[in-house]
């Protein structure tokens, strides 16, 4: 049975304070991406970001501990976990993950396609961004593990779930790297499908 899904109309309206936080957070991200596009990652400073976003440097740090965090932070983890929890219990792992990733990528590419491409390019070009991406993926992997544990009844700390969740995250990291290294020429959703095929069936033409 599929869990009930909520729509924006079902959710309580955000208060003024929360709306201001979201607006400030978005202003910082927008300023950062614009400056990086104009002058490059290394030349972009927190002070410049703060000035462009019309906030203080301390406000930038309150929302994002490092410049790398501004680059890699997105809003899709909660979306993916909600989608995963809403899938039918009898659906295969591969089909669940395909649906979840398609949903998140469709939203990301519809709302901020250039940011999505810039983020993956910086993950290839800037070692600090790539390292922070890997740390972030470890955190997302823990969320994935917990959601999968709820579906399966397994212990979220079990070796099998840990290996499975981090295999998925490692595969997605490689998809991101490959997409950027090849000039974003392919549809990333198709690349994710190919990666999930490898995780489900092994290498094409390989022996068991």
From TrEMBL:
Classification of source organism: Bacteria, Bacillati, Actinomycetota, Actinomycetes, Kitasatosporales
Keywords: DNA-binding, Transcription, Transcription regulation
The entry's DNA-binding region: 45-64
Family matches, as PROSITE patterns: HTH_TETR_2
Pfam families: TetR_C_14, TetR_N
Domain HTH tetR-type: 22-82
UniProt xrefs under InterPro entries: Homeodomain-like_sf, HTH-type_TetR-like_transc_reg, HTH_TetR, MftR_C
Keyword GTP-binding recorded: no
KW Transcription regulation (keyword) present: yes
Protein name: AcrR family transcriptional regulator
GO molecular function list: DNA-binding transcription factor activity; transcription cis-regulatory region binding
């Amino acid at each position: 049975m599929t869990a009930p899904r909520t729509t924006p109309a079902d959710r309580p309206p955000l208060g003024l304070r929360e709306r201001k936080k979201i607006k400030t957070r978005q202003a910082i991200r927008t300023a950062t991406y614009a400056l990086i596009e104009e002058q490059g990652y290394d030349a972009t400073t927190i002070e410049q970001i703060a000035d462009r976003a019309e906030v203080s440097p301390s406000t930038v740090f309150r929302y994002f501990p490092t410049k790398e965090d501004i680059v890699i932070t997105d809003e899709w983890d909660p979306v993916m976990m909600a989608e995963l929890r809403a899938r039918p219990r009898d659906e295969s792992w591969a089909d669940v993950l395909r649906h979840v990733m398609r949903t998140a990528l469709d939203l990301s590419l519809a709302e901020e396609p250039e940011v999505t491409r810039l983020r993956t390019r910086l993950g290839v070009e800037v070692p600090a961004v790539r390292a922070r991406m890997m740390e972030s993926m470890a955190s997302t992997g823990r969320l994935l593990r917990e959601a999968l544990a709820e579906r399966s009844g397994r212990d979220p700390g079990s070796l099998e779930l840990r290996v499975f969740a981090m295999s998925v995250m490692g595969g997605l990291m490689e998809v991101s790297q490959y997409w950027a290294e090849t000039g974003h020429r392919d549809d990333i959703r198709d690349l994710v499908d190919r990666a999930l095929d490898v995780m489900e069936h092994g290498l094409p033409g390989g022996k068991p």
